[in-house]
Amino acid sequence: MSTPSPIRIAAVLSTEHRGRLMSQAREVNFPESARIFDEGTRADSFWIVRSGTVTLEIPVAGRRPAPVESLGPGELVGWSWLFPPYVWQLSAEAMTPVRAYEFDAATVRMLMDADPTFGSAIGHWVGRVLAMRLQQTRTRLLELYAPRLTSTA
């Protein structure tokens, strides 16, 4: 099965909406192996990778977390900030040193509410990312558990 193309911000948001979002950005750095967030914790920020690689993971009982997807430059890290109860559904770790743009989720949600066109554009972008991540997670879970299910049948 082929991996879908990454959904990069420049390919999805108009110049105007991208500029508006980026006006809220703060540059941050994560060293290699840094935990960016953990499943079940409060989702109050999100990031766009500038350089480096971030791995999204799902917890697996009795094992190390399973990597779901690797994210690189231009890609969104985190979508749980957009949907109540604003709790991370996955975990993220810097696999290499990472430079990223960080955004305060509450501020971006407020901007989205104030400008429905901007809000719709951001919502569609995050929705596309979410759909792709759901498919990636499904595929990864099948890779992890399908062999066990068929060997016990």
Q: Which SSEs are present, and which pair or pack?
A:
Elements: H1 9-12, H2 15-22, E1 26-30, E2 35-37, E3 45-51, E4 54-60, E5 63-71, E6 76-77, E7 91-94, E8 98-104, H3 105-114, H4 116-152
Antiparallel strand pairs: 1-8, 2-7, 3-6, 3-8, 4-5, 4-7
Q: Would you write up a description of this structure?
A:
- With 153 residues, the chain is of the alpha+beta class.
- It is 39% helix and 29% strand.
- The chain has a single domain (9-141), classed as Jelly Rolls, CATH 2.60.120.10.
- The strands form 2 sheets. The chain has a 4-stranded antiparallel sheet with strand order 1-8-3-6.
- Helix 3 (105-114) packs across helix 4.
- The longest helix is centred in the last third of the chain and has 37 residues, at 116-152.
- The protein is globular, with a radius of gyration of 16 Å.
**Overall helicity:** 25-40%
Number of helices: 4
Identify the overall geometry. Answer: globular
Spatial extent as radius of gyration:
16 Å
- Structural class call reads alpha+beta
Mean pLDDT across the residues is 88
The CATH C-level name is Mainly Beta
CATH superfamily: Jelly Rolls
Largest sheet: 4 strands, antiparallel
Pfam family, one: cNMP_binding
Protein name: Cyclic nucleotide-binding domain-containing protein
Organism: Streptomyces spororaveus
InterPro entries: cNMP-bd_dom, cNMP-bd_dom_sf, RmlC-like_jellyroll
